[in-house]
Amino acid sequence: HFRAAIFDLDGVLTDSAEEHFLAWQRLAAELGISIDRAFNERLKGVDRMGSLDLILRHGGLDPDLAERQRLAARKNGYYREAIEAYGPHRLLPGARRALVAARQLGLKVGLASSSRNARFLIERLGIASLFDAVVDGSDVARGKPAPDIFLAAAKALGVEPDEAVGIEDAAAGIAAIRAAGMRAIGIGDPTDLPDADIIISTIARLRLERYLPA
Ligand code: G6P
Ligand code: MG
């Protein structure tokens, strides 16, 4: 049965999804584009350039590649400013316990994040040592909703995809987990994540032992 649990980071273990949103909103405002939280649901889990392209299209802008790279770098500066101040106190309630519980159940524990800041962030949060493998957006060609990040995490953990469960707060992430052939646990609102196998409201409600043989 299950041998591994593979966690997303932003919005699952810490509220950095909010910092991504605020950084994108600030950049978008500078471009005269307004984005709200409903629009942001489409950005969650999507990589940096992919998110920028969605925002530019939303605003009817089409700058060249060099300008898009400058804009993406500016947003990343805003985001880094916000997460510089992160420490273990920024873990969501129950996040550390969920990782420790997975390890105590004998599961391999992986991180599968689209974010190129993921390794920095798990250091800041003080949870880097709780992962057996970490895969981020810089390790694979295609970001979520492609399955690549989750498949690479399973491989690094030495398990087959169907022996792993993925835990995600983003629609793009649930799609990636499903495309990888894994079971998907969604965290958040069922209407935002219709394709998850199971939905829980927060990481504090994760009970992986329920899906393991007795
Ligand atoms: C995560 C977030 C996305 C973010 C992406 C890339 O998946 O959910 O909102 O755009 O990572 O993050 P990065 O730190 O590389 O810009
Ligand atoms: Mg997320």
Automatic annotation (TrEMBL):
Residues that hold Mg(2+) according to the record: 8, 10, 168-169
Site entry (Important for catalytic activity and assists the phosphoryl transfer reaction to Asp8 by balancing charge and orienting the reacting groups), positions: 113, 144
Residue sites binding substrate per the record: 8-10, 24, 43-48, 51, 75, 113-117, 144
Active-site residues, as the UniProt record annotates them: 8, 10
Family as reported in the entry's similarity comment: Belongs to the HAD-like hydrolase superfamily. CbbY/CbbZ/Gph/YieH family.
Protein name (Swiss-Prot/TrEMBL): Beta-phosphoglucomutase
Organism name: Sphingomonas oleivorans
This protein's encoding gene: pgmB
